[in-house]
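Field log, afternoon session.

UNIT: design team B
ACTIVITY: writing a sequence onto a fixed backbone
BACKBONE:
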């Protein structure tokens, strides 16, 4: 993920679209598609809604997960394979409410 910062976040909009804030002042809009996915013009990432929040996958198959509040929950490299130990790198983020 092109140097994601732990201050990046998502914000759902009333029309179903999602805004992505990169933590450096840039904001992008992901538009809700008919298939339920999200698309941002000029971005080569997939964004999908899950039961726990959102998942963003870049062209290199690196994964960023966001919680139901749009906060960054985890970053994993393309080698990470589920819960298998030693299968890549992952950083988890926890927040006080």
């Amino acid at each position: 993920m092109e140097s994601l910062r732990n201050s990046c976040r998502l914000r759902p909009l009333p029309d179903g679209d999602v805004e992505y804030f990169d933590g450096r002042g840039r904001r992008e809009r992901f538009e809700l598609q008919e298939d339920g996915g999200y698309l941002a013009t000029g971005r080569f990432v997939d964004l999908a809604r899950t039961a726990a929040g959102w998942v963003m996958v870049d062209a290199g198959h690196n994964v960023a997960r966001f919680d139901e509040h749009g906060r960054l929950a985890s970053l994993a490299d393309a080698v990470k394979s589920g819960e298998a130990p030693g299968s890549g790198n992952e950083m988890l983020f926890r927040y006080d409410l």
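LOG NOTE: The first strand starts at residue 9 and ends at 12.
NEXT ACTIVITY: expression trials, pending approval
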